[in-house]
Amino acid sequence: MKAKIEDWFHKYSDDLYGWAYHKTSSKEVAEDLVQETFLSAVKGLKNFQNKSNPKTWLFAILNNKIIDYYRKKAKGAVVNDERLEHKYTDTTDSFFDSNQNWKTTGQEVYWEEEVHLLDNKEFKKVMDHCVNVLPENWRLAVMSKYILGQAANEICQELKVTQSNYWQIIHRAKVMLKKCIDNKWTSSN
Amino acid sequence: MIFRRVLSALTFSCKRITEITEKEQVNTLSSIDKFRYELHLFMCKLCRSYVKQSQIIEKALGNMFGTSDNDSKRLDDSARKNILEQLKKEN
């Protein structure tokens, strides 16, 4: 039993470490996450079904650890997330008029037309800021989907929300990010 | 304003367009709805802009927190030894 885990460790630890490093940009954090992954694997080995691929299984554990890491990191900044979610829901609704079409201001910014936006350091800063001001649940949903590439049903389980609720969160978070970039990107340029 | 009301009556509202775009359901739409979706985008500059912005946001999110160097990373030897010791202590 233990020998099996050690065998997996020799086979997969570098791949897991590489992924954890890529997602956290920190050697220490990535090492800790790999360690926690294998310790969880030892404890959960009886839940592992031999028909599944051990590498996939280990990566699933690691992804949960990465999310936990960001969840802990985000804690403290959030005082009243539920109230914030309501506020942001109202805010995203307010971008549309009574017919559910975009409210126009005549000052729309078409930042998508700019070239090399993704390589632009200022744009990255704006993105960072805009993601950080989202309500915690929204940020976690967005991070799980786009940063970790998790499947919708996994994210729903973790956040304890229904599928339709999840899509609403992703949708609203995206609209919110767009508006935040609209504001910040024009004011910084 | 009037133009958008007519357009949304014929196709979808702008809000609905942003939802459909998000649900990645464009490919699961019926052909008539797919046509309505495309027609809306063709006629509505704001939604066209939104769809492109949405793609940029997704790419930018994918790059976030990640490092750009693609060197294959190896767990270093002291960390490796440490984790193996921890594993031996278990059970």
TrEMBL record, chain A:
A Pfam family per the record: Sigma70_r2
Q: Which domain of life is it from?
A: Bacteria
Keywords, in A-Z order: DNA-binding, Sigma factor, Transcription, Transcription regulation
Question: A single Gene Ontology molecular function, please?
Answer: DNA binding
**SUPFAM superfamilies, alphabetically?**
Sigma2 domain of RNA polymerase sigma factors, Sigma3 and sigma4 domains of RNA polymerase sigma factors
Q: Name one GO biological process term.
A: DNA-templated transcription initiation
Residues covered by the RNA polymerase sigma-70 region domain: 9-74
Question: Which NCBIfam families did the record assign?
Answer: sigma70-ECF (TIGR02937)
Family per similarity comment: Belongs to the sigma-70 factor family. ECF subfamily.
User: Per its record, how is this protein called by name?
Assistant: RNA polymerase sigma-70 factor, ECF subfamily
Q: Which source organism does the UniProt entry give? A: Pricia antarctica
Automatic annotation (TrEMBL), chain B:
Domain of life the protein comes from: Bacteria
What is this protein's name? Answer: Zinc-finger
